[in-house]
Amino acid sequence: MENAVANIVVPLWVWVAFLAGVLAVLALDLGVFNRKAHVVSVKEAAIWTSVWVTLGLAFAAIIFIWQGQQKGFEWLTGYVVEYSLAVDNIFVFVLVFGYFNVPPQYRHRVLFWGILGALVMRGAMIGVGSALIKEFHWLLIVFGLFLLYTGIKMLTQKGSDDHVDMDKNPAIKLAKRFFKVSENYDGQKFFTVQNGVRMATPLFLVLVFIEFTDLIFAVDSIPAIFAITQDPFIVFTSNVMAILGLRSLYFLLADIVDRFVYLKTGLAVILSFVGVKLLLPDVSKWILGESIKIPTAVSLGVIVGILAISVIASLIKTANKPDSPKLEKEV
Q: Which residues lie closer than 8 Å to 237 by C-beta, 6 or more apart?
């Protein structure tokens, strides 16, 4: 595997400082800037997207200065991979918000808590993954094969999820077994009281679905970043910074996401590429007796190039395409 530079032991206080900074920014986001429920405008979303991307690039610069060029490229590549794969979540957000007819002013709140939960889940999965990889090197080969399989499956898969009955989703069915669900929303509350009975609102079901979906996506995205680096600090921080910008990116792209018709193809190629990157050192050593590795800087260029081509091709393809109707369900 590519380990030209050994993992740097990151002091505990750095981990604590990073987590404290993330929590502080999230507290400002929910408690100050978005204290009142409101419809997020495209302008506001663009500003916040710029803020999150700027913070991500600033953190990348810190890694370059602190840990050197190799680690810097690993972090930046991991960030780009996670951010690009996170875009796939936007398709799901559009689908679930339309299906449950979620009022626009409540969407920021549900995404805030959904992404906060995603950060916790991914942190746990990354911790477990790092520990297992350290003990069992062959897991990287399993990850590589899984990513290659997933990428090929995405390339050959036909059909759309636009007409999926979300009420049959296992997470939704499980939530309904444990909670009575009201028929109507009660502002931006996840729980309400009706006739003296405490009930979950449809907004809670949306939150459950988003958390479940992110868990599924994490099965692809976390092995993908382990293909770039096995440094726990690089893996975790790049993942977190990418996920933090997902909410604002949703509000920025929600109305035009249907135009990205080739994005899933691009993501499939990226997954296949990182799968090959992960497998190549061991396979080449077995066959040629010499371990061949794709430099991280080259990987970054390839991934950015694939993304750019898929987005530009999508916009050209759909330049004159009318907006498609959103899936809706009466709640």
A: 18, 59, 75
Query: How far, in Å, CA of 174 to CA of 168, rounded?
Result: 10
Q: pTM for the full model?
A: 0.85
Give the separation between CA 177 and CA 182, rounded to whole angstroms. Answer: 13
- Tell me which residue of 111, 76, 93 sits closest to 297, measured CA to CA: 76
CA distance 234 to 6: 12
Query: Among 55, 76, 100, 107, which Cα is nearest to 250's?
Result: 107
Q: Give the pLDDT score at 330.
A: 42
Tokens of 300: 């970054």
Residue ranges for the chain with pLDDT beneath 50: 1-4, 324-328, 330-331
What are the start-end ranges of the E strands in the chain?
Answer: 191-194, 197-200
- The closest alpha carbon to 96, from 260, 206, 238, belongs to 206
pLDDT at 90: 86
Q: Measured between alpha carbons, how far is 157 from 294 in angstroms, rounded to an integer?
A: 28
* Distance in angstroms (rounded) separating the CA atoms of residues 226 and 243: 16
**Residue 31: HSE in the Cβ half-sphere, 13 Å Cα cutoff:** 6
**Residue 217's pLDDT is what?**
82
Q: What is the pLDDT of residue 161?
A: 53
Phi, psi of 169 (to 5 degrees): -65, 135
SS3 content of the chain, % helix, strand, coil (to 5): 70, 5, 25
Instruction: Give the residue among 48, 78, 41 at the shortest CA–CA distance from 63.
Output: 78
